[in-house]
Amino acid sequence: MTGEHRDTVNRRRLLYGGAAALAGTGAAAWASGAWEAPAAGAVPPQHPGYADVVADFGAKGDGTTDDSAAFEAAYAYAEKRAAGGTGRTVILVPPGQYRVTKPGALLAADSPTHQVNGLRFVGAGLRISDIVFAPATTDGPDGGSYLCRNNDTWQNVSFEGLRFTSGTPGASFFYSYSTGGAANYRFSDCEWMGEWEYGIALDGSNTNSEMRWEACRVGGAYRKAFLYAGLSLHSTDREQQDQFLNYWFTDMNVTYEWGNFLEFPYGGSVTCRSGSYIVTGRRPTAHPDYGFESAFFRFPRPSHFDGVQRFHAEDIRFELRDDAVVVIDCAWNRGTVHFNDCDDTAHAFKSFSDALRAHRYTLTDNGPLVRYDSCQLVGTHQYRTASGATPPSCVRYDMCRLASHPSASFLALDAHQDRDFATFASCLPA
């Protein structure tokens, strides 16, 4: 082990171990009223800002005991400590497998008149601290049964070093409703497994945004999508959901069985940078909205406000192991789509690769502007023309390798559609 790696491990051990040691006495003492503030300048022997679901609230983490009550108590404690619009608690989840059956046990925020900034959930590491959500039913308000619910209450919520597993097929992880009070989520070193309806479902009328995922693994399967932005169940002005924007995915391992990774019916500003994106199979049964198809990026509606039709993918390796998988299906009527230094030739050896249409767009009089730079691409790209539209020059392939077809036959077009909208610059032929 190198000195640098050893130092990193030691720092992590100190961070979690020290926090856990503080939690075991601090939260319990504070809750009982026994905790006292230290003298000025002194370092407290324990701190009420750390709450351990095992030491303080009795979770077992043995994979069989229902730990719902312990997580509910930890969240209630954190909610109680919030003051002046600021959350002051870190909830610690030690190594173990925690079975949770009650929806909202991890986070149940329903006080939009008491908006708070700052709540942090910290596990011991990916595949070390595992929360298995196994509700008795997947029916519930807001389109499902959710482990976390944030109704316009918390901003700046972070999850670190945790694995979330759906123990009941069709359960959902997180429901977030915002009119301006739910935003700024961060997921670091987290993983999702099992069969979910939604990973994260965003709803509301404004600013359900500023969210980032870093070094996370998205596994399992999704009946709808891992991130579904624009649920529109309660919004009086549904078009205002176009205010959902700014989502960043960095250094991701997206390797799941089937379903959609991102679906944005109401627009968005999305950046996906570096990682491996793989769909390993196809849906076991036809879905009423998608049939057997799965997609990494699905933007199904054309009309949105300015500034929320922007997608950028960079340094990503795509692998499609079934012909019912799509990289992108975009119906935006303007905005920008940019792929830079991406590669989807990992499935070039498949018998279906030459006929694959894994990149699909609908073009209007205003675009969108579509650009591929330094990419390696397999199959053909499909361009549909909106009714009555004459697309301008809005599509460009620059220094790309076309692995299956030369540029003359690379575009799959509607009948009688010309290809004047597309430019190929310094591309290598098949």
UniProtKB/TrEMBL annotation:
Matches recorded under Gene3D superfamilies: Single-stranded right-handed beta-helix, Pectin lyase-like
Instruction: Name the domain of life.
Output: Bacteria
InterPro entries xref list: Pectin_lyas_fold, Pectin_lyase_fold/virulence, RHGA/B-epi-like_pectate_lyase, TAT_signal
A Pfam family this protein belongs to?
A: Pect-lyase_RHGA_epim
Which residue ranges does the record assign to the Rhamnogalacturonase A/B/Epimerase-like pectate lyase domain? 54-137
Q: What is the protein name given in its UniProt record?
A: Rhamnogalacturonase A/B/Epimerase-like pectate lyase domain-containing protein
Organism in which the protein naturally occurs: Actinacidiphila reveromycinica
